TrEMBL record:
InterPro entries given in the database record: TPR-like_helical_dom_sf
Region (Disordered): 1-22, 96-138
Protein name from the UniProt record: Tetratricopeptide repeat protein
Annotated Basic and acidic residues bias: 129-138
Annotated organism of origin: Streptomyces fimbriatus
Residues annotated as signal peptide: none
Pfam families: TPR_12
Amino acid sequence: MASSTVPSSQPNRPPRPNLVFRQLRGPRSPAEFAAAVRRAAREIGERVSCDARYVHRVEAGEIRCPNYAYERVFLHMFPGRTLTDLGFAPRSAVRGRRARDVGDTPPAHTGNPANATPETSVADEPYDTQDRYDTYDTHDHEESDVLRRAFMTGGGATVAAASLGPLGFASDASAAQRAVRRAGASDAGALEEAVRRIRLLDDRHGADGLYRRAAAPLRAAYALLDAGATRQRTADRLYAGAGELAISVGWLAHDSGRFDDARSHYAEALATARVTGDAGLEAHAFCNTAFLARDAGRPREAVRAAQAAQRVARSLGSPRLMSLLALREAGGWAGLADRSGCEQALARAQAYFERGPSEADPEWMSFYGEAELEGLEAQCWSTLGDWPRAARHARRAAELQDPHFTRNIALYTAELADDLARGGLPDEAAQAGMRVLDLLTEVQSSRVQTMLAGTSRVLLPHRRAAGVSAFLDRHASFPRAV
């Protein structure tokens, strides 16, 4: 792993962990604490792009003193404390400048606080797969430095063991906390089962009702990592399981429209993969990052993340994984209105898919079959404005999908309805929309509801048609996800 390009006066001295800051985080996961930092920033009119990686770096001691924007936020979160009370070094020790008096306040906010001079920065390529970490927010250079250590270790850790049981959804992890001995194989197995359980429930019911319930297992997973493991094999399983769980919880946030939370969870997973050298986990994290970037309106980032995932995944020996990653790239090219780039990526996706499944296919790819291939291609053509072609693929996706994947059937059918509506077939679109409304009695997905709302707006000029009117009336009365 590459070291920081910023020169240090003591290059051979490792950073000293900020144990005070770690204690202040308490039982919250790094992603949850990062979300609290962002909320606190909004309360005082600041703008920081704090995510789990930033929290990791503070706790690992890599950020000895935060920039002024973060300083204002931290002092707001912990009133009555100074930076040194929070475990940071005096600013004079970091910058070689005169320390401010204890009673001084940080400089007044002017312009974009995220453009304040960073304590560390590197001009990293955001999706270099060799030894660097993504820069998710180019306005906050503090988060673009190398993350050497993603997790703290040490005694005194606690874990909500019950929340990692087979059902794995304790409403309040703190209610089941207990002092932890070093984690063993049974803990790793419980963590892996929690990941499977979340994926199973998401397949059938969608993300909206699961996201907050899944936070408890994630907190417990990080407590297990803090506790350490009895054997290296167990430690490897714990790190892999925690990374996959972070991706699963990130997907629940992603699918329910909580993009900032999703980004932070995916960053946690990527950090875990890089620290442990887990290429499979790294490819998965990049895969989901590409999908999120596409949905968040950052198509160029989607292309780069998908390409980074493909570089990592080539050594894994799974054509199906390469096929999915090529589709993620195609989605980015479509968002850039690059039809040629999209078609080339789609051709690669099809070629890889036709090689068939293999023993090297990751467990998390159980959702990826011909139906998903068709559905993702439909989304590409829809983005490019080729509605008839998009509708053909969306229809085929819905027809091919295994009934177990109720959420995906709803998604593909919603895609079909939208493509038909935009392609000038309002009656057929209304019929497809009715099928989606039927499925939404079982599925809670903000993504599907958002798509259906867009279709309704497109169909409004055709309200006089009997089928369209019935759909619009039923859609208007349908309860929205909370």
